[in-house]
Amino acid sequence: MEDKQFDEPVHAQLKPGKIRAVTWTSQAAKALLYEWPDKRGRRHRTARQACLDVMSGLKDARAARRAFTAAAEEADILVPIEHVVNRHR
Predict the structure, then answer these.
(1) How far apart are CA 37 and CA 81, in angstroms?
(2) Is the pTM of this model over 0.85?
(3) What's the number of CA atoms in the CB half-sphere (13 Å) around residue 78?
(4) H or E stretch including 24?
(5) Which residues, 6 or more positions from 10, have their beta carbon under 8 angstroms from its beta carbon?
């Protein structure tokens, strides 16, 4: 299994008050499997499969990043980068 890095991190609030920067396919897969909120829909399933496909060498990391971002939007846990930047000022 290959672990590939995203070209840019995806920021998600997996736990209340805690924002996580997800930068690797393995991090995304673990988040989807073990830390995801109860709201799991079609995009969640698609993201899980995309991560497996990347780690199996069938897709590139951009596919997993896009799918993970869409799943985070679906679950309403995606944190826009401007919120992360403003939080650290």
Answers:
(1) 21
(2) yes
(3) 16
(4) strand 18-24
(5) 21, 22, 23, 28, 65, 68, 69, 72, 78
Q: Can you tell me the distance from the alpha carbon of 23 to that of 77, in angstroms, rounded to the nearest whole number? A: 16
| Residue 22, token pair as written in the block | 């997800």
Rounded Cα gap, residues 5 and 79, in angstroms: 19
Q: What share of the chain is helix, strand, coil (3-state, %, to 5)?
A: 50, 20, 25
Has residue 85 got a pLDDT over 70? Answer: no
Q: Is the pLDDT of residue 57 over 80?
A: yes
Question: What is the per-residue pLDDT across 2-49, written as a single tens digit (0 to 9) for each?
Answer: 999 999 999 999 988 889 999 999 999 999 999 999 889 999 999 999
